[in-house]
């Protein structure tokens, strides 16, 4: 876990070393094109994936930038959050996210969880503590616990792990556009630049799909 956090820290430090404009984005420099495309969850739409961890300070800092962008995405773009699960607290918090997502209440408590862990990194380490916390946010405690320990969530955990491996990520936050292009905030040049790069790759995928028709 230390190596992953160090990777994320190096990437964030790159914000001050890279100053890319949309016209300057280059494959191999600002983003990586995966050797094998990963299937998207909604065929026919351009998918943007954010891989994150609730305990990551850079993911927390990215929230005010990415959330307004997500809200304005056009209808042909599908945004997905996937928890990075590399063991320990990564897995515990990833299971928390997948449980809330399965219950349809993730958007209701997502920010509160980030706030809680930003102020107390040692919080939310057991299902019972999580259940008590989300209950304070209006989520049914018993339903949370039964969902958290369900077979369906175990399947979602394995799916998330396999996707992270397929995307070949080494830190968070990482963005993947349409299962083909992977980049992070550091390689893009900053939080705003990362979303400009995402917009550029979305436009590329849209144009390529139109040309193929």
UniProtKB/TrEMBL annotation:
Major location (coarse): periplasm
Occurrences of domain Thioredoxin (ranges): 11-203
Cystines in this chain: 56-59
InterPro entries the UniProt entry points to: DSBA-like_thioredoxin_dom (IPR001853), DsbA/DsbL (IPR023205), Thiol_disulfide_DsbA (IPR050824), Thioredoxin-like_sf (IPR036249), Thioredoxin_CS (IPR017937), Thioredoxin_domain (IPR013766)
Subcellular location(s) per record: Periplasm
Pfam families assigned to the protein according to its UniProt record, in alphabetical order: DSBA (PF01323)
Keyword Ubl conjugation: no
Molecular function via GO: disulfide oxidoreductase activity
GO cellular component, one term: periplasmic space
Key words of the record: Disulfide bond, Periplasm, Redox-active center, Signal
Superkingdom, natural source: Bacteria
Signal peptide: 1-22
Keyword presence, Disulfide bond: yes
Family: Belongs to the thioredoxin family. DsbA subfamily.
Name of the protein: Thiol:disulfide interchange protein
Organism (species): Pseudomonas denitrificans
